[in-house]
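Appendix B. One record, verbatim.
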Amino acid sequence: MEMEPGKMNVSKELSPDSASYHCSACHGDETWSYNHPIRGRAKSRSLSASPALGSTKEFRRTRSLHGPCPVTTFGPKACVLQNPQTIMHIQDPASQRLTWNKSPKSVLVIKKIRDASLLQPFKELCIYLMEENNMIVYVEKKVLEDPAIVSDENFGPVKKKFCTFREDYDDISNQIDFIICLGGDGTLLYASSLFQVRLCFRVLRYYSGIM
């Protein structure tokens, strides 16, 4: 009869209520007892970082359906005609229209090298641009080194008015308003390769090609 109180004390100490504890490895999700674990609320585990304990502020990544519009320049005096739809929508490039802030005054003329059939059209075009429209004409330096142009004495006074540049040496991107190409598809691709950093000049192409 004297041992019964002792047994009662042991059973009380090993009861589920008194011997339960929390497992730190389970992040406090499971409560363990003497006989078996008593699982609490289910919690999904992930490898992503969880917010700090005690922090109730939620962090959400901002999302937007409207990406930034590409920044493209069309020379010092040209720009895209503003459309009210471009405020909330990205405009289709095929529907864009260019306009001039000021009248164009400078032009780059690119001629196909070593093509005798383009010499006369090139001369007539340059005379028309400089003498009748008072425009500044830029040409490549190697174009004026053509023997057919050097030997033409009548074209000498016009040749002195040219502004020349050298590929990969002189930067004229902020000085010309538009480009005129005399040649085929290769000449057009060559003109586009001269200005590849967010520049898109107006290009007028004459002569031949399939593009």
